[in-house]
Amino acid sequence: MQLDNKEVSLSPEVITLGEPMAVLIAQETGELKNVSHFLRGIAGAELNVAISLTRLGHSCSYITRLGKDPFGEYIYDYIRSTKIDHKYIYFDKEYNTGLYLKSKPLNGEDPIIYYYRKNSAASHLATKDIEKVDFKGYKILHITGITAALSKNCKDALYLAIEKARKNNLLISFDTNIRRALWKNEKEMKKVLNKIAFESDIVLPGIGEGRELTGKNTPEQIADYYIQNGSKAVIIKIGKSGAYYKTKEESGQVDGFKIENIVDTVGAGDGFASGLLSGILDGKSIKDSVKTGNAVASIIIQHKGDNAPLPTKEELDQYIFENYSKKILVSKNYNR
């Protein structure tokens, strides 16, 4: 899948929307209630993707609401220090910025996450905010299922963003990114996320998410389900085995990178999405774009933090060269 780059645009290449949060990362192992020292950071799936894409040399716009509070101002100052276009970031004096705590895991285990995000400023993002956005000139809209789960007005804002993206011929990338605690029930979750997936050009579920949302078992079956319902490409993340991809024209599995020491898995999916989209923006084939996604994800899980270890383009190219020996490894065994 390649973008048509014939027209040169002065607008950023990618636009995304979602909830940014401050994160307090435990610096000691054990239960969070017993931790005394935390490291402050910034998180949020869509913001992670925007940060990564800018480090890889691409331009992004980010739409959100922040509380007029210390965490909101901290996040805004950080975004301003990057190359992310922040003209669609709005401050909300009534509601606070979301926050979460993250434990320090042992032996590559997933950390414990505890959210303080109910009724956050970002959950009040609305269609009126999207109406202000000019989608003309962008190439990609990247969205996740998290935004749709935050509130009804966020879901409506997401639907409007999809509609405006379609009218302006943007490629729509959708990471299902299930957060069960944010949904009222599983039936609504499946209905909403699949509706968004059917409207998207690229769908990016994890293998477990794909099975839950489609009722199918294998990567091929999951991909077929979405392609038969309107999606153009489906890339299914299958952990250390890499990712399976399928379009109407081709399919395959790109092996993951061998990792000796997994430090923190949070943010890996966002890293994968940014690497994939970077590859597409650079005109790479779908196979090479998936390989780039695998590379960024593997870098993320070897470090602490959702976005601190994100590489520059030069660092990423060197990492792929050293670890992949410039060879695309495609397995014939997809039924995992």
TrEMBL record:
Keywords tagged on the record: ATP-binding, Kinase, Nucleotide-binding, Transferase
Superkingdom of origin organism: Bacteria
Family (UniProt): Belongs to the carbohydrate kinase PfkB family.
Pfam families, alphabetized: PfkB
Record-linked CDD domains: KdgK (cd01166)
Entry protein name: 2-keto-3-deoxygluconate kinase
GO-annotated molecular function: ATP binding; kinase activity
Organism: Garciella nitratireducens DSM 15102
Domain annotation Carbohydrate kinase PfkB: ranges: 13-312
